[in-house]
């Protein structure tokens, strides 16, 4: 059986888990489930990183010892994952005795090989990142991650000869194009390697400055640099080095595996870790999969800004399966995405309540009404039935392919194509009309065709929404089948999976619509009416001006020049036009605008316009809009704002 090993970063326990932690871990869980569905021996690993300066500072602030502090926060992380539907196979802590011993073995191996040496170094040290930065890496003299001025520290330390492996790592990346993905992050690492001589890595901290760490096996006056300690977890969690040569052990079974990280820790995983493995004579990982940030109001989450999202509260409020679906569907893997309650409600109502939930509700209700809740026989099939089943077959195949490429949003969109087609099929075939005319055989074929296609979709959604998927399969009279390659191939290959005459659910309400909570405006105090002076002059009311805004509010707008590639009438609304607009990105954006009363579509292709590019996607009468085209009103007329600049140019 083929093995698959996926890891999350081990999370630093100086603070409690937030949405970013949850996203990485849910994606890893989803990938593990997906590969189990492919019939593979899949393992998912997560854990906590518990050494370093920040832990000591956080523990001191909390008035407890570092060990007591990390025990508490590690427990919070460990307890959270099952409540988010996550089934991790292991949970490693860097304070585990076995991990500490294994790190010392790795350090000693590199020291004995001559790849660790003692020297003196002066550099810009960021306590937030717990690493030294070169002048070139700083941004205006500040840490690029924390935007704080690092402290210049000069001290004697141990160094890993990372520069020795620069050319070998560069060649490996060139020879293996998908080693780091998406491509933009591969190019970023290559730029680091090709930008000059790679510096050696300081891998120790003197005990005179820090004692909370793993002691170096060859010098008891120093502890290991936290990143050197943390990165080793991916193999120590598999029992390395104790089982390094055991063909049946976890290390040989699962390594090399795949890593899942956020873009802020690209360099440690893309350069430090593979060079460490090369030096130790160990195989490199298969893939480094890098995702973007979740932004709140277009700003990275930060405790200081007070915009950190509690993932458990969000999952409990919106529903666990809906929350998981939103995270996978909303973010294009590798890019940043915006989180807001409005975005979740819009996505859940459009995709889950209106599309999938409505489909299950109406079809199961009609089956109960017309066939007593029993699965009808399949009669003669017409072209419309074959077209629907073919759409489902194609959507299912595309889903599997795209999901395996970590293109989760596109994979789910591919699976929603047949879901929408099924709802359209219901409207076109009109089962209620067939029942009224007494065309029972045709009615049975229509309902059975829908039920079979619904089952295929329900089965494939298991990695993303395990609870809802299992419930939908049960509603259709099928328990979750054993996870195997044969089971998946059967679902993809065949169109008949349900048993004629079996009684199934008569109703479904898995995805109720969500409503936006309205904040009640505070009651205004009543003012006493005063009699106006008898001869007070009357004045014309001045036009009401909009309240002034701060310049920082204006800076939040991402205004760009867009080039309209095509324009057409909205299929469901006379007042709306649908555009494909080039904003200088990898692919054009779809934008819907309510300007059909003022412009003909054929007049607009080729025009340059101004677009608000950082609005969250919204569906307008069933078509998603990914931005807003700006216009100016004068009287009853409307004009498009334009700019004579290349597509994608920023307007400031």
| β-strand amount | 15-25%
Straight-line distance between termini: 56 Å
Residue share in helix? 40-55%
Quaternary organisation of the protein chains: single chain
From the helix content, strand content and strand pairing, which structural class follows?
A: alpha/beta
Mean pLDDT: 90
Task: State the low-pLDDT regions, or none.
Answer: 519-523, 531-544
Question: Main β-sheet, in a few words?
Answer: 7 strands, parallel
Shape: globular
The number of strands is 27
Number of helices: 21
Question: Over all CA atoms, what is the radius of gyration?
Answer: 29 Å
GO molecular function, one term: ATP binding
Main location: cytoplasm
Subcellular location: Cytoplasm
Region (Disordered): 516-544
Could you describe the 3D structure shown?
With 652 residues, this protein is of the alpha/beta class. It is 40% helix and 19% strand. The protein has 21 helices and 27 strands. Strands 1, 2, 3, 4, 8, 13 and 14 form a seven-stranded parallel sheet that branches. Strands 18, 19, 20, 21, 24 and 27 form a six-stranded antiparallel sheet that branches. The longest helix has 31 residues, at 341-371. The radius of gyration is 29 Å and the shape is globular. Mean pLDDT is 90; it is low at 519-523 and 531-544. This is Methionine--tRNA ligase. Residues 553-652 form the TRNA-binding domain. Its cofactor is Zn(2+). It is an enzyme of class 6 (ligase). Belongs to the class-I aminoacyl-tRNA synthetase family. MetG type 2A subfamily.
């Amino acid at each position: 059986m083929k093995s698959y090993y996926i890891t999350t970063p081990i999370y630093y326990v100086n603070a409690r888990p937030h949405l970013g932690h949850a996203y990485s871990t849910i994606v890893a869980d989803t990938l593990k489930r997906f590969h189990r569905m492919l019939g593979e021996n899949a393992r998912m690993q997560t854990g906590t990183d518990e050494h370093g300066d920040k832990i000591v500072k956080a523990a001191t602030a909390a008035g407890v010892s570092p060990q007591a502090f990390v025990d508490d926060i590690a427990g919070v992380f460990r307890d959270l994952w099952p409540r988010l539907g996550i089934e991790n196979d292991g949970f490693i802590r860097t304070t585990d005795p076995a991990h500490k011993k294994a790190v010392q073995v790795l350090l000693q191996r590199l020291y004995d090989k001559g790849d660790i040496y003692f020297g003196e170094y002066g550099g810009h040290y960021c306590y937030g990142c717990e690493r030294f930065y070169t002048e070139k890496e700083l941004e205006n003299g500040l840490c690029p991650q924390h935007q704080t001025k690092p402290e210049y520290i000069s001290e004697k330390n141990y160094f890993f000869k990372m520069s020795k492996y620069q050319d070998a790592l560069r060649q490996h990346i060139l020879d293996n194009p998908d080693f780091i993905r998406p491509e933009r992050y591969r190019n970023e690492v290559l730029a680091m390697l090709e930008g000059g001589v790679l510096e050696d890595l300081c891998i120790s901290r003197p005990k005179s400055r820090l004692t909370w760490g793993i002691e170096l096996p060859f010098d008891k006056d120093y502890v290991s640099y936290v990143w050197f300690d943390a990165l080793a977890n991916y193999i120590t969690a598999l029992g390395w080095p104790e089982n390094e040569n055991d063909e049946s052990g976890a290390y040989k079974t699962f390594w090399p595996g795949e890593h899942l990280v956020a873009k802020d820790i690209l360099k440690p995983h893309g350069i430090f870790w593979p060079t460490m493995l090369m030096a130790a004579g160990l195989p490199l990982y298969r893939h480094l999969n890098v995702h973007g940030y979740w932004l709140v109001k277009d700003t990275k989450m930060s405790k200081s800004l007070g915009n950190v999202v509690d993932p458990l509260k969000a999952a409990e409020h919106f529903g666990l399966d809906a929350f998981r679906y939103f995270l996978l569907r909303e973010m294009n893997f590798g890019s940043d995405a915006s989180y807001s309650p409005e975005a979740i409600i819009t996505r859940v109502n459009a995709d889950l309540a209106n599309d999938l939930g409505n489909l299950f509700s109406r079809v199961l209700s009609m089956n109960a009404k017309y066939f007593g809740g029993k699965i009808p026989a399949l009669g003669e099939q017409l072209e419309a039935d074959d077209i629907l089943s073919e759409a489902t077959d194609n959507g299912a195949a595309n889903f599997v392919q795209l999901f395996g490429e970590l293109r989760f949003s596109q994979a789910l969109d591919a699976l929603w194509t047949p879901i929408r087609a099924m709802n359209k099929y219901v409207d076109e075939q009109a089962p209620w009309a067939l029942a009224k005319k007494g065309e029972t055989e045709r009615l049975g074929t229509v309902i059975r065709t829908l039920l079979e296609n619904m089952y295929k979709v329900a089965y494939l959604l298991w990695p993303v929404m395990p609870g809802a998927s299992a419930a939908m399969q049960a509603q259709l009279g099928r328990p979750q089948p054993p996870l195997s390659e044969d089971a998946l191939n059967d679902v993809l290959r065949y169109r008949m999976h349900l048993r004629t005459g079996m009684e199934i659910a008569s109703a479904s309400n898995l995805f109720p619509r969500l409503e936006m909570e309205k904040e009640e405006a505070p009651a205004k105090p009543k003012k006493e009416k005063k009699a106006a002076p008898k001869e007070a002059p009357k004045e014309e009311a001045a036009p009401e001006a909009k309240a002034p805004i701060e310049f920082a509010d204006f800076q939040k707008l991402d205004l760009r020049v867009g080039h309209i590639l095509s324009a057409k009438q909205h299929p469901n609304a006379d007042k709306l036009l649908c555009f494909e607009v080039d904003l200088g990105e990898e692919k054009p954006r779809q934008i819907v605008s309510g300007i059909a009363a003022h412009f003909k579509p054929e007049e607009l292709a080729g025009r340059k316009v101004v677009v608000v590019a950082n609005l969250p996607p919204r569906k307008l009468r069933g078509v998603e809009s990914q931005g807003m085209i700006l216009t100016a009103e004068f009287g009853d007329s409307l004009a498009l704002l334009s700019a004579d600049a290349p597509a994608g140019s920023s307007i400031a």
